[in-house]
Every structure is written in C-alpha cells, then in structure tokens.
Write a structure and sequence with these properties.
The complex is a heterodimer. By secondary structure, chain A is mostly beta strands. Chain A contains four helices and 20 strands. In chain A, a hairpin with a 6-residue loop joins strand 8 and strand 9. In chain A, helix 1 runs antiparallel to helix 2 and helix 3 packs antiparallel against helix 4. Chain A is globular, with a radius of gyration of 19 Å. Chain B has no helices and two strands. Chain B starts with a strand and ends with a strand. By secondary structure, chain B is an all-beta fold. The chains are: A mainly beta, B mainly beta. Chains A and B meet through strand 10 and strand 20 of A and strand 1 and strand 2 of B.
C-alpha cells in the first residue's frame, strides 16, 4: 500500500514538466526515504535523478519498497488536470497494475481521481559515485536558461570554463562565435540573484546544448541552479526542490578525438 | 572531431 499526499501539488506538476522531455518512460521508486526516480535519456548521454523526501509530504505511507513504471507523457497528461493549488495524492496497491492520482481543490469542493495504467520498464540502475568537483557554480536558474537558449541559436555545443574570473559559456557556429562571462556577485542583497563560483581547479568542458536546454525545463522548480564540474566527470546541473529534495541532471561531455 | 561520451562510461551499473 502506497499513499503520498503532497499539499503543494504544483511541485509534482513542475517535476514532470522538468523531466518528460528527456525521458519517456521511467520507474518511480518508493521507499521509506522518499519518492525517487533515476533514468537515462534514450541515447544514454544524460541521466536524471529525482528525489522527493518522505518528510516533504503531508502524509507518506509506503509499506514496502515499490517500483512503478510510468509513461511520463501520460503522467503529465493526468497531472495537467490538477489545479496549481490542488493537493495531490498518489495511491498504489501492491500487485496492482495501476496508480491513482487524486486531486483536491484547496476548498475541498472538487475532488478528482485519475487512474493510470502502469508499465513494465527494464531499466538499469546506475551507481553514481560521490565526487569532489573541481568547480561549483551557483547562479539564477533563469539566467542559466537564458544563456543556454541564446547560445543554441549560434551553435550546437557549449564550452563551460571556470576560472578565478568567473564562469564562461562559449559557443561557435556557422554564423560566428559567442562568449558569455558571468562573474561572482554574491554581494547582492537578494540571494536568489547571486552568482557564486567555487573553484579548486580550472575546468573546461564541452557539452551538447540540446541537453542543457532540456534541463532548463526545470527552471520553475528553483530560483537557483547549481552546476558542478570536474574535468573527468559528467556535469551535474541541480535544481533544489524547496524543503523536499532535488532534480539532478547529469550530462556526459563531448571530447576531441 | 568531437565525440559524445555516454553516461555508462562514468557511472557503473549496481
């Protein structure tokens, strides 16, 4: 038996919109820790890891670990029927091949339930090693989204370089080149507008902009994004979900050969 | 020539 009641139902709607472009079908894992997902895109270049901790739910009952395979597009279709202020409850029964989403309006005058068919999904669960990153950039998520969108009109890849000066996003294409440098500005009064750059070693890595743009669908989840880079590792683009957890996107770099 | 690496190259199956 599974019953997860999320008062801020809009969070689940935003999570789905954040990941469904990257991943079509995925197993949602439910345990005492929380509601989580790990899935790769079809070309195995990017990986998304989601965690919604059990403490973030108003009511969280998960009698035993359960994995539910869902089409994210179908789930998004159902969650789009929930109002932004609705309370969302996810219900599942052991051995059942369906999951139920219940939506309650804030005034309790409208209660809907949507039953969705589950699917069997073969997915390999990867071990993501704990890593010390060479550089960690924190910046406004909207600014990062703007940069990825702007650069993708010039080129297909972005070189992200971190130095003492700040973080530089560069691209080149048939029509020319572009460089955008963001400097640390942590003295600003509003923490959500701050850009901070922690650097242990200079880093420069190349990534496909198509994936970066897809990650920025998570922008509505958080005012800030954290970009962790190491020369030997996939970049991690993390959007924290207030009080609850995170959506992390991992993207393997491109290399010259 | 640039080649795109995959996630599997970095993260092992568990």
């Amino acid at each position: 038996m599974l019953e997860l009641r999320l008062v801020q139902g809009s969070l689940l709607k935003k999570v789905l919109e954040a990941i469904r472009e990257l991943v079509n079908d995925a197993n949602f894992d439910c345990s005492a820790t929380g509601f989580s997902l790990q899935a790769m895109d079809s070309s195995h270049v990017a990986l998304v890891a989601l965690l919604l901790r059990s403490e973030g739910f108003e009511h969280y009952r998960c009698d035993r670990n359960i994995s539910m395979g869902m089409s994210l597009n179908n789930m998004a279709k159902m969650l789009r029927c929930a109002g932004n202020d609705d309370i969302i409850t996810v219900k599942g029964d052991d051995g059942s091949d369906t999951v139920t989403f219940m939506f309650e309006s804030p005034t309790q005058d409208k209660i809907s339930d949507f039953e969705m068919k589950l699917m069997d999904i073969d997915s390999e669960h990867l071990g993501i090693p704990e890593a010390e990153y060479h550089a960690i950039v924190r910046m406004p998520s909207a600014e990062f989204a703007r940069i990825c969108k702007d650069l993708s009109s010039i080129g297909d890849t972005v070189v992200i370089s971190v130095t003492k000066e700040g973080v530089k996003f560069s691209t080149k294409g048939d029509i020319g080149t572009a460089n955008i440098v963001c400097r640390q500005n942590s003295s600003v009064d509003k923490p959500e507008e701050a850009t901070t750059v922690e650097m242990n070693e200079p880093v420069s890595l190349t990534f496909a902009l198509r994936y970066m743009n897809s990650f920025t669908k998570a922008t509505p989840l958080s005012n800030q994004v954290t970009i962790s880079l190491s020369n030997e590792l996939p970049v991690v683009v993390e959007y924290k979900i207030a009080e609850m957890g995170y959506v992390r996107f991992y993207l393997a770099p491109k290399i010259e050969e | 020539v640039q080649i795109q690496l995959t996630i599997g190259r970095f993260f092992g199956c568990c």
